[in-house]
Amino acid sequence: MKKHLLSVAILGTFAGAAYAQSSVTLYGLVDAGVNYINNDNGKSNWTMTLGLLQGNRFGLKGAEDLGGGTKAIFQLENGFTGGGALAQGGRLFGRQAWVGVTNDRYGAITMGRQYDSVVDYVQPLSGIVYTGLAHPFDNDNLDNSFRVNNSVKFTSANYGGFKFGGMYAFSNTSSTDTGSGFATNRLWSAGASYTQGQVSLGAGYLHLNAPNANTTGAISGDYINVTTTSPLHAAGLASAVIREDIAAAAATWQLAAVKLGFLYSHSKYTSVNDSLKFDNYGMSANWQITPFAYLSGNYTYTDGKQDSKGLKPKYHQVELIGDYFLSKRTDVYLLGAFQRAAGDATVASIAPDTYGAGGSSAPDASTSRSQVLVRLGMRHKF
After folding, report:
1. Adjacent-strand bridge partners of 47
2. Which residue intervals define the domain Porin in the entry (predicted)?
3. CB neighbours of 38 closer than 8 A, spacing ≥ 6?
4. What is the pLDDT of residues 24-63, one digit of tens each?
5. φ and ψ at 233, to 5 degrees?
6. pLDDT value for 14
């Protein structure tokens, strides 16, 4: 009898040790607020929406210790709209869905639906993390208008503040398929970041071939709209994008309670007989007034050019936000944004719901060159 009890105790000890080596975490975020838009398709509008400052989500992430500093890891993350429907084109886990392995010394290799390197290394240093609002049309994808399917990603370990990584996403199409090929709707990207003391730097590059050209490839269903049917109107491309390239770099400098940020990004959309380019110049400042309150401002100047027509759409965008934390997980905020279209841009569009964010709660384009958005919101993380 004593031997039996001893065996049960030993087995229980090993079971507890094995359990301690694995973990699964449930997490999520809900952001809700009331918006005022001065010109929403020609009329002022009051709305109550979810997911403007940050996209609403819930997810599971976990790790299993394999020994020797190596772990198996995974993440499944759902996005949902204000009406509770699935976002990101109706996907169950449209924000992220990947599995991989990580090592303390070398880094991680992950496979599935993931973020590209521009988002990984540049977005955290941009003003988008404070206001949640993209550059016009999210032309550089820094606001995650699309995620990447069929991707294999490497993310290095942290070497004295320096990190780097890259991604390749498959088209999942045979090179012998009629009217398609191995390169159709594939993607690759690379990036790096460095932090030392009060200074952080980040840079990234993203290349896409015929994005959204099929349903099997890297981008499917949630690609950015830069055609003549978007608020770009005459400055939009007349046919589908066959190539897109994005290069971006950012830096932040922490000065006591104030963090200053600078960003530059260049995006180029190429169609059969045309191209559309955007250069974004951004400056941001975040003032941590108290441990529970901050005030942030962001300004972006976007300079566009369409080669075939010689058009030069331009945009000025200013955002201000005051945020107060009721606890570590709950905050209330007041957000204001103003956009002014200039040059050959005929209408303002702070965050058009046509850019493919998958159930976006953003307003439609203005019918004039100016648009104002004010939002009073609350966010809770769990």
Report:
1. 35
2. 8-338
3. 44, 366, 370, 371, 372, 373
4. 999 999 999 999 999 999 999 999 989 999 999 999 999 9
5. 50, -120
6. 41
Please name which of 68, 143, 154 lies closest in space to residue 109, comparing C-alpha atoms: 154
**Local structure of 89: helix, strand or coil:** coil
CATH 1.20.1250.20 applies to domain 24-381? no
For 4, phi then psi, to 5°, come to -65, -45
pLDDT of residue 352: 66
Q: How many helices (H) and strands (E) does the chain have?
A: 3, 17
CA nearest neighbour of 88 among 200, 265, 221: 221
Q: Assess whether pLDDT exceeds 90 at residue 4.
A: no
* C-alpha to C-alpha distance for 252 and 298, rounded to whole angstroms: 13
d(CA 26, CA 328): 17
Q: What is the mean pLDDT of residues 89-111?
A: 96
d(CA 339, CA 317): 4
Backbone angles phi, psi at 171, to 5 degrees: -75, -20
Instruction: Please give the sequence-ordered ranges of beta strands (E in DSSP) within 199-350, or none if there are none.
Output: 199-209, 243-255, 258-270, 275-290, 293-306, 313-325, 330-343
Distances, alpha carbon 348 to alpha carbons 140, 281, 298, 303, in Å = 18, 18, 17, 14
Q: How many residues are listed for the chain in this entry? A: 382
Top pLDDT among 303 and 358 is at 303
**How far is it, in rounded angstroms, from Cα 325 to Cα 134?**
23
Mean of pLDDT over the chain: 90
Distances (CA, A) of 111 to 26, 100, 151, 175, 217: 21, 6, 6, 22, 14
CA distances from 288 to 124, 256, 323, 324 (A): 17, 9, 10, 10
Q: Which 3 state secondary structure label does DSSP give 114? A: strand
Domain residue ranges in the chain: 24-381
Q: Quote the tokens at residue 57.
A: 């989500």
